């Protein structure tokens, strides 16, 4: 799978551009590429395949124009399917960055092409990129950079302002001194702590992380397991068949599970199986909120995505478990069942059951059976509305912030409302606050903690003041979790299709915040 | 030392054409004063110049001062390339101090707010090898592993990877670090790169990780899956006991949605297990790929893989059952794919599948459209027929079912196809007499519909040879009679001619061929143009029966076969029939036809005179028939049969060799070691890691072969370049490595003085290019030094390297330099020529296509023709295409075709025609003709032959 080099050659054997992805010396690559054009000439012009193999390498090429070729140099063991995929991308790049594909144009844009080539292949392995991504990578247009540049400018301005003010104060003090005339000169002049020093120096350190309070995106292990979805494929059974066959034929296949036990399964797999249900049927409901609202209370985007998982840990129930759902929801939820679920039955009777000819659940495996989505731009649907009101009072800014729980049936736990603070302006003075607050000085965030917000505690407020501009206090982001789902429904019963008897079940629900931002 | 051949090179850009001379000063000024755009242009220029050999080292400081602090993104990227190519060390191998500044700038870039700047900086660091430079950057690189943007993380992993590979002391905990990273990572690209690093650096850890998430492998992205497969391959390759563990994963990857993964997994599965189930799964996967992928490249390569799979007899048995699936690959329109598929099918077909396969092929034959008589379709049809031919000769049982229905193809518009079918019929009727009757009947039926001369000739031969009963013979005679028309030919033609000309009875001996004056019916003269006469004649010919038409057209090769067939028929008939009268009647008729053909041949009715040799043949037949002794005739029949026997057995042997290309299965001897599947160790399965081997091969660093033979050949390749009494003695060892020639030159100062500024100046003639100029050195008295120079070769031509050595003698005031002229080094093209194989037809086609011919007369002392041929083959590295069978035997002349390819892909054809005079003691005479596409090739090969001829004389 090693791609050695990508090049553009002319039919006459001229190498216009070539970029190597592994170490090789110059005469070697030149020799190989010259040979390519020679081989091309001697080959049958009518042939319908576009690769040439020599003793040592394989060339995969694509004619770009009457006389130009994009050619990839690969090892002979290289995966041709991958190479063709890359080749397509390479030739798209060429057409993208050269207006007309001709020698002169390619020479003009040689560097652009080399930059783009670099994005496609890393150390001889294809990167998973498409044309749009390449374009972004080449443009190098970074939001973070803009933010940091803006910030640096703001700080510079601020520092200049402070300097001016101090200079004025100083001037005043001096004048006063002059008026008073020669009294105790030396000890009266005091420079209130480092004029601009604090602002500038601290900005250098923190430029990168300010304003971006999005946590680094690593997918949690739970998510990885969840994205597996319905794992009812017959593949696994086939594998066993296959392995059995091989064993019968004298091959040796070590059992994986024993190996795992020996090495001590790493914490990866442990976390995946950590949710051991106790009852025969366990229902897990997971919802995620994505919300963007503007500071004036308008709702820009609000989306809830929910999944219902079933974990059947009773061998009898693998095919027969039926879940009866009772929805109290009047809002417009889009429901979607897994293809393996009897859709009709669900729509008519709100019963989740496997299709007559569907595949059964896997024992003890988490299986997603029902998904729902709710999106709205109606402000009344916001679960927790935030009203942040900074008022510019000269050199200080007073910020009033309050929350209101608009959905009384919800209970939100561990709510954290993070308000960004302007850099270099010292600590805020909190005059009034419901709940706790903490200052994250590294990220310059004021975190307002509220352990529970529910119908007993629908509103609360906080007030603080700090030097800054009203714009400095946005975007506010909110984190919370809840064990009540947003969608109002309940599990009526879990019934076994065979016997009609009710089955004991347990249920667990969680509502998580993906992003909840007031801009 | 701008770009030495040893240094790795990542970028090539062609020269810019403007001839404007470059000046360091101008460039410097542009960099100092220009705005960003001007700087970009200048940087591009500098990189161009440096890539094409300029040194420009003085600019480094300017670049660092004025360009490095930039915020412009394009400029930043250009700087990466600039620092990639700039030599980072001084001539003594010490790090240049300026680079420390660069390093600092990159430390800042690694903390840049722009994720793309960070990412590309990290990518650049992958190419940096100097530990001193990397060291201060390590903390920043580490922190980049945790940056929020996947773009940065993924490049950071690669940087860690390469740094660990080259200077592991800088980051000794890299594997742990990356494993930890991998466990946390969510982005597929980052994951892949991290896994890739573990795979190459620490297999144990990679395996642990894989074992932990083996269940999820099926859910990974395709690029990750590919690396997983590679890891499994690598591990199992090293340690065969691990094989069992991963069968499951690999098998489940065979069902991956990405075809690239499936392909790779299949390739790995073969190395993991030899059991029929595994092989079957692999073959199924491959066949699926061949059928479903639309790209011809994929089809061809996968077919090659399948073929490789077949090379093991045990595997072949598994694959034999899947022949029918493979056949659906024939739907592809590309001839190359079809050809490969057919080859493979032929190789796999067995008694059980043969009927089905042949039925399929026959159907394919009839379905392939006749309308579009494209080259491709004809080629495909011929392949199909060849394939059926082989099938039939392997499994004669099926011949009876498919042959009759193939007869229609004899009437195919294309004569080549028809001839191929007839060849098949010839062989079948000869070898399996049971089929004879049916086939002869069918052939007799379609006899009258055949129009092509060549097809007729072959058809006549088959009929003449294989008609065995009275009834058949009389029927064939009847047909022939009909097709030849009225006898005797000359008289009846002249009569017709006369009738055509309105009963004017002045029959002239010469039939008008050009513009002639005619006497018209009313007695006036008229001029008739050649055109109308020709058309009228052509029209007349159209009406004539086929055989007659051909005869009148002057096709006397056909006449010969007709005569042969007639005489064979008559002789066979005589031996079968007791009725003397009918025997004689048949014989008489045959003689009449032959003699009237003879007559026609000598008459002036034909436009071209008939070659005497063909008339001789007719005479011979006539004489054979007229001879009273029946034994002579029978002897002739017997001889022909034997000759055919010999021909066919030779052909089938040849075909077997070509089709399989693999020695026969029956090579196992009784005393061979037996391999027990359970006891087989890893080495027996697959000798070397294909990934690494192919990479090494491609990068050109596999020298195994050379090192083996170096000891004995090294001395042969030493050229003495100056005389022993010259002040400087020089000799060169010429080392040829594919496209490079490396000269290792030993220079010895033979004087008692110190020689200063000894400079070796080399120049080349021909298609050679000096890559690296040797540098100047000083030589102490009686001292010696080794200098290396690299020359690049780009085509096969006799190149010459020449030059001189210039030096100063220390202490002498004279300003002129001393000079020693060197002997020329002739580069031997034989290093580039490899014997190649070519089909006879292709040889002919190329022979007509190639433009350059070099004709040499044989001038040698060799007295035996075979010895001469062998000598030429040996000294030119060419391959003799003429089969040895055709060259054996006592004969006074010899003709052979030779073929070779150069490693640059140039081809050379040669034909040797030799004649041995009667006198035993005289050396052979004749010509050697060389044809090639390029003049250089033809000339240099000719020189080579000339020299080798003479060399032999001196011996």
TrEMBL record, chain A:
Swiss-Prot/TrEMBL keywords: Coiled coil, Cytoplasm, Cytoplasmic vesicle, ER-Golgi transport, Golgi apparatus, Membrane, Protein transport, Transport
Organism: Oopsacas minuta
GO terms of biological process kind: endoplasmic reticulum to Golgi vesicle-mediated transport; Golgi localization; protein transport; retrograde vesicle-mediated transport, Golgi to endoplasmic reticulum
Highest taxon above the source species: Eukaryota
Primary location class: cytoplasm
Family from the record: Belongs to the adaptor complexes medium subunit family. Delta-COP subfamily.
Its job: The coatomer is a cytosolic protein complex that binds to dilysine motifs and reversibly associates with Golgi non-clathrin-coated vesicles, which further mediate biosynthetic protein transport from the ER, via the Golgi up to the trans Golgi network. Coatomer complex is required for budding from Golgi membranes, and is essential for the retrograde Golgi-to-ER transport of dilysine-tagged proteins.
InterPro entries, per database record: AP2_Mu_C_sf (IPR036168), AP_mu_sigma_su (IPR022775), Coatomer_dsu (IPR027059), Longin-like_dom_sf (IPR011012), MHD (IPR028565)
Subcellular location: Cytoplasm; Cytoplasmic vesicle, COPI-coated vesicle membrane; Golgi apparatus membrane
GO cellular component: COPI vesicle coat; Golgi membrane
Protein name in UniProt: Coatomer subunit delta
Residue runs in coiled coils: 153-180
PROSITE patterns (alphabetical): MHD
Domain MHD: 278-519
UniProt keyword annotation of Transmembrane helix present: no
Pfam families reported for this sequence: Adap_comp_sub, Clat_adaptor_s
Subunit annotation: Oligomeric complex that consists of at least the alpha, beta, beta', gamma, delta, epsilon and zeta subunits.
Record flagged with keyword Membrane: yes
UniProtKB/TrEMBL annotation, chain B:
Domain Coatomer beta subunit appendage platform: 816-945
Record flagged with keyword Membrane: yes
Alphabetically ordered keywords of this record: Cytoplasm, Cytoplasmic vesicle, ER-Golgi transport, Golgi apparatus, Membrane, Protein transport, Repeat, Transport
Principal location listed in the UniProt entry: cytoplasm
Domain Coatomer beta subunit C-terminal: residue ranges: 670-808
SUPFAM superfamilies the UniProt entry points to: ARM repeat
Keyword Aminoacyl-tRNA synthetase: no
GO cellular component: COPI vesicle coat; Golgi membrane
Gene3D superfamilies listed in its UniProt record: Leucine-rich Repeat Variant (1.25.10.10)
Functional note: The coatomer is a cytosolic protein complex that binds to dilysine motifs and reversibly associates with Golgi non-clathrin-coated vesicles, which further mediate biosynthetic protein transport from the ER, via the Golgi up to the trans Golgi network. Coatomer complex is required for budding from Golgi membranes, and is essential for the retrograde Golgi-to-ER transport of dilysine-tagged proteins.
Descriptive protein name: Coatomer subunit beta
